[in-house]
Amino acid sequence: MCAEKTILVTGGAGFLGSYLCERLLEAGNDVLCLDNFHTGSRNNIRHLMDDYRFELIRHDVTVPICAEIDEIYNLACPASPVHYQIDPVQTVRTNVHGAINMLDLAMRANAKIFQASTSEVYGDPAVHPQVEGYCGNVNPIGPRACYDEGKRCAETLFFDYHRQYGVDIRMARIFNTYGPRMRPDDGRVVSNFIMQALRGEPITLYGDGMQTRSFCYVDDLIRGIMALMDAPATMPMPCNLGNPVEFTMRQLAETILDLTGSRSELTVRPLPQDDPTQRQPNISRAREHLGWAPTIELREGLQRTIAYFERELSSPARVQQPRKTPLVRRTRPVQPHAEALARGVVSNGAGL
Ligand SMILES: NC(=O)c1ccc[n+]([C@@H]2O[C@H](COP(=O)([O-])OP(=O)(O)OC[C@H]3O[C@@H](n4cnc5c(N)ncnc54)[C@H](O)[C@@H]3O)[C@@H](O)[C@H]2O)c1
């Protein structure tokens, strides 16, 4: 990887974004972390705040912004159904307006841009395992559509900016990823099961628990994302990134019970609407063009994640500490942001 670039990471205070910021700094880059803290946390990036190459910008991607950058990783968007369904209109806005704003910025700055797309674009897939050429089976009016269709529209925008304006794009369709720094109240299956097991609460299985997912450990995924950004422009896009080893929800619950030594019972609830029954990536493209494949097995990744949640549970409630270093902003919000500030729609970063 070529070092000493200035790289913007939107959603940089989130679960995946915080690891990406960390790895990009380790590789010698300047990192601008942009986040509105909708689901992200200052705790995820607190350890980076004293690095002079790291800057935090409290900003919403739905509002245009200017910055001098070489690359953009666009990750801003809540990933958990619990969080993206709280304000579905904002979820669509984040995906669609956010993509337009970041693509406009990439065009102005002549920067390469990566989009964090998702396996959710495949919906409840009729093709198994999912290959990039499969166009998906998504309900456009269901409760998950704000995320699924938002991400699909973002994909369209990325490809249209590429065809129409020549923007250099990279795109990963990310499958379920887990690891330390997931929020305990995240609502995704791995964090749910671990928290329930550690608290001795019943583990909630939806449906018969035979629906499958494949789980990728965060370190593997971040390695894949960075390799994709550095891949030649001729590489076919998008590219699935995920772990092809498939587990049923029941197997996942049993593994977590085993690793935690918990006596929690399994309890069964009805399957939520539009919940996919099968999810497994075909990663031939990533293997062939990036030489990438996951290396961390589920049990090992779960052990590290359980240790993290145990620490979180045993430490007193984390209070937000005042930051040690002042915010230095080298970006200049364009007019709509100034208007939004005047209307009180977005924060000016005070109180970070
Ligand atoms: N983790 C996964 O398993 C997974 C799977 C598929 C796709 N993805 C994608 O990867 C990206 C990161 O996911 P994650 O798991 O880290 O989720 P996350 O919720 O932990 O992180 C998302 C970050 O984006 C920020 N954000 C949300 N809306 C914003 C806005 N309008 N403006 C600025 N910041 C905003 C949040 O505050 C948060 O810090 C998302 O785009 C998600 O769709 C993740």
Automatic annotation (TrEMBL):
Q: Which Gene3D superfamilies match?
A: NAD(P)-binding Rossmann-like Domain
The chain positions of domain NAD-dependent epimerase/dehydratase read 7-236
Q: Where in the cell is it found?
A: Cytoplasm
Keyword match NAD: yes
Cofactors demanded by this protein: NAD(+)
Q: Which GO terms describe its molecular function?
A: NAD+ binding; UDP-glucuronate decarboxylase activity
Annotated region described as Disordered, given as residue ranges: 267-286, 317-336
Domain of life per record: Bacteria
- Please provide an example of a Pfam family that matches this protein in its UniProt record: Epimerase
Q: Does the keyword Oxidoreductase apply?
A: no
Q: Name one GO biological process term.
A: D-xylose metabolic process
Please name the InterPro entries in this protein's record. Epimerase_deHydtase, NAD(P)-bd_dom_sf, UXS-like
What keywords are assigned to this protein? Cytoplasm, Decarboxylase, Lyase, NAD
A Gene Ontology cellular component where this protein is annotated is: cytoplasm
Listed PANTHER family:
UDP-GLUCURONIC ACID DECARBOXYLASE 1, UDP-GLUCURONIC ACID DECARBOXYLASE-RELATED
Name of this chain's protein? NAD-dependent epimerase/dehydratase domain-containing protein
| Organism lineage string | Bacteria, Pseudomonadati, Pseudomonadota, Alphaproteobacteria, Rhodobacterales
